[in-house]
Amino acid sequence: MMVYIDLSEHLATSKKNALYTSPQIQNEIINICGEIIQHKIIEEVKKAHLFSILGDETTDIAHVEQVSLCLRYVDLKDVKHQVKEMFLEYNPTVDVTGS
Fold first, then answer.
1. What DSSP element (H or E) covers 9?
2. Cα–Cα nearest to 95, from 74, 66, 69
3. What b/e string do you get for 10-29 counting C-beta neighbours within 10 Å, with b at 16 or more?
4. Other CB atoms within 10 A of residue 71 CB
5. In 3-state terms, what secondary structure has residue 31?
6. Distance between alpha carbon 97 and the CA centroid of its chain, in Å?
7. One digit per residue, pLDDT tens: the chain, 99 residues?
8. Which residues contact 70 (CB under 8 A, 6 or more apart)?
9. Is the alpha carbon torsion for 10, 12, 13, 16 positive or negative?
10. Angstrom distance (rounded) from CA 29 to CA 40
11. How far apart are CA 31 and CA 28, in angstroms?
């Protein structure tokens, strides 16, 4: 059973050395949430049986080349069998020659 606590309640009632608000902890929580979301997307794609992988190169604000990866699939749970497209991640690109 999951227990949900309001963030304001957590900050007001927790010990000051256990707030989990440091940048490191925040980044860890964000990464864990991202992994959970990716896992759920992949499980849904596995049920679809057919999918395509979309990759597109882009440059971020720091001028770092990266490839964005997305999945496109038909949602078989939906009565209308809608096509879904889900973003997975950005991967840094070390070589843009195509080899």
1. helix 7-13
2. 66
3. eeeeeeeeeeeeeeeeeeee
4. 19
5. helix
6. 28
7. 556 667 788 778 888 877 778 889 889 989 999 999 999 999 999 988 889 999 998 888 888 889 899 999 998 877 888 899 999 998 888 876 766
8. 53, 54, 55, 56, 85, 86, 87, 88
9. positive
10. 17
11. 5
Cβ-contact 65, 59 below 8 angstroms: yes
Contacts of 68 (CB under 8 A, 6+ apart): 55, 56, 57, 58, 87, 89, 90
d(CA 41, CA 24): 26
